[in-house]
Amino acid sequence: MPPLKLSMHVFAEAPAQRFVILDGQRLGEGASPAAGIVLEEIRREGLVISVNGQRLLLARP
């Protein structure tokens, strides 16, 4: 997995209002910041990404 830099994490009750800034890109749920990586879910405590089908929880700093 390539290194990912999380610089902003915004959680809201409404999923459409959730976003992160990852490697300088503003991304919402379902976005793909790099090949083989999908931002599946933005949670209060961090984000769930899928890397080549394997789910990982990245805790927010």
Produce the secondary structure layout.
Blueprint: E1 6-10, E2 19-22, E3 25-27, E4 37-43, E5 46-51, E6 54-59
Antiparallel strand pairs: 1-2, 2-3, 4-5, 5-6
What does it look like?
With 61 residues, this protein is an all-beta fold. It has one domain. It contains no helices and 6 strands. The chain has strands at 6-10, 19-22, 25-27, 37-43, 46-51, 54-59. The strands form 2 sheets. It has a 3-stranded antiparallel sheet, with no helix packed on it. Strands 4-5-6 form a 3-stranded antiparallel sheet, with no helix packed on it. It starts with 5 loop residues before the first strand and ends with a strand.
Q: Which radius of gyration do the C-alpha atoms yield?
A: 10 Å
Number of helices: 0
Placed side by side, the strands forming the largest sheet appear as 1-2-3
Low-pLDDT residue spans? none
N→C terminal distance = 19 Å
Range of helix content: under 10%
**β content, as a range?**
over 45%
Which overall shape is indicated by the principal axes computed on the Cα atoms?
globular
Condensed summary:
This protein is mainly beta and 61 residues long. A three-stranded antiparallel beta sheet has the order 1-2-3, with no helix packed on it. The chain has a three-stranded antiparallel beta sheet with strand order 4-5-6, with no helix packed on it.
